[in-house]
Design a protein that fits this description.
This protein has two domains: 273 residues, no CATH class; 39 residues, no CATH class. 67% of the residues lie in helices and 1% in strands. It is mainly alpha-helical. The chain is extended. The protein has a two-stranded antiparallel sheet. Helix 3 packs antiparallel against helix 4 and helix 8 packs antiparallel against helix 9.
């Protein structure tokens, strides 16, 4: 799976995915922010319908990234990587299918779609757990302390929390407890993942300068879920007001937009790091230094002198600027031959 962050194409698709999820959060936040007293207007309904489709686009972008990297690994016959990427592709496919079913359901409840997407995130957790076991065996065989394996295990646990939060049903305005629990579990999952990545950077296991941006984006997502938990406690209940619904459901979404945009910035910077170094521009070699005679800085290039007065004449001139005498067409003189060495 390390090949995913080393592939420029895959990271570019990750950038698309992060931007699509940010767009999904933006649509959801705007839909609740413009609610009117008569209920969801035409604009709000359109934004609510567009939000899950944007999320599906992000999941599809991640699936395409895994497929492209897996195909390259298959051509190079790196079978261990191929099997890992196949498992990752299947898990991501479940997430994409869940997002597609949720988007196609419109305003109908799609709890089954949430469960399917949760199974996909659980598949990623199992992949990281297998990676933790492999790294632990390698560290034990080398007699090294268990430094990296613990972090792999922590990342797996973080994805378990995210999978649980994803699998919970969508809370209604009367289910305050469920809404608070869902937001808290999301916050714990994002926070655990941020801690694991931050510890990897501090210990020198991951040295990429992009990682602090990714960790910052995850902490902003934690803040978004905590705001959502507080807002759910204040808004959800038997008698919610229009203003409380507007603020309580839109502000967490807008904070989430910031978090996903920071993740997109991290992917953008990573793409820049993976670009090939630009080759220096080719320049036509000039004459050897032995041929060059120092000339005044105001007289550019090779030039000739007037046969009458000896004044310097620019090659393109037809008359001498000093005496006005016609100048024969300019032909460069043969530079002196360098003495043999």
């Amino acid at each position: 799976m390390i090949a995913l962050v080393r592939s420029r194409t895959a990271v570019t698709m990750g950038l698309v995915a992060a931007f699509a999820v940010a767009l999904s959060s933006l649509f959801g936040g705007l839909a609740y922010a413009i609610l009117s007293g008569a209920g969801a207007g035409h604009a709000s309904r359109g934004l609510l319908l567009a939000s899950p489709w944007a999320y599906f686009t992000g999941a599809l972008a991640v699936l395409v990234a895994i497929f492209l990297v897996g195909w390259q690994e298959l051509l190079e016959r790196r079978w261990t990587h191929v099997w890992e990427l196949c498992a990752a592709a299947f898990s991501t496919l479940l997430v994409a299918v869940g997002a597609l079913v949720s988007a196609a359901a419109g305003f109908k409840p799609a709890n089954a779609a949430n469960v399917v997407a949760a199974l996909g995130l659980g598949g990623w957790a199992v992949l990281l757990l297998v990676g933790a076991a492999r790294v632990a065996l390698a560290e034990r065989a080398a007699g090294a302390p268990q430094r990296e394996a613990v972090l792999w295990l922590g990342a797996s646990g973080a994805l378990v929390f995210l999978a649980v939060a994803q699998g919970l049903p969508e809370p209604s305005l009367s289910a305050a407890t469920l809404a608070i629990a869902t937001a808290v579990i999301w916050a714990v999952g994002f926070g655990a993942l941020a801690i694991v990545l931050g510890a990897s950077y501090i210990r020198g296991l991951i040295t990429s300068k992009v990682l602090p941006w990714l960790v910052l984006g995850l902490w902003i997502l934690v803040a978004s879920e905590l705001v959502s938990a507080v807002a759910s406690g204040l808004v959800f209940g038997p008698h919610p007001t229009l203003l409380s619904v507007r603020l309580g459901l839109s502000i967490p979404s807008f904070v989430g937009v910031v978090g996903w945009l920071v993740v997109a910035v991290a992917a953008w910077v990573r793409v820049g790091h993976l670009l090939p170094a630009a080759s220096p521009a080719w320049q036509e070699p000039g004459p050897p230094s032995a041929w060059i005679t120092p000339v005044p800085s105001s007289t550019p290039g090779w030039w000739q002198r007037c046969a009458g007065c000896g004044a310097p004449v620019v090659p393109e001139s037809r008359f001498c600027p000093q005496c006005g005498r016609p100048v024969s067409p300019w032909t460069p003189t043969q530079p002196p031959q360098a003495p043999p060495i």
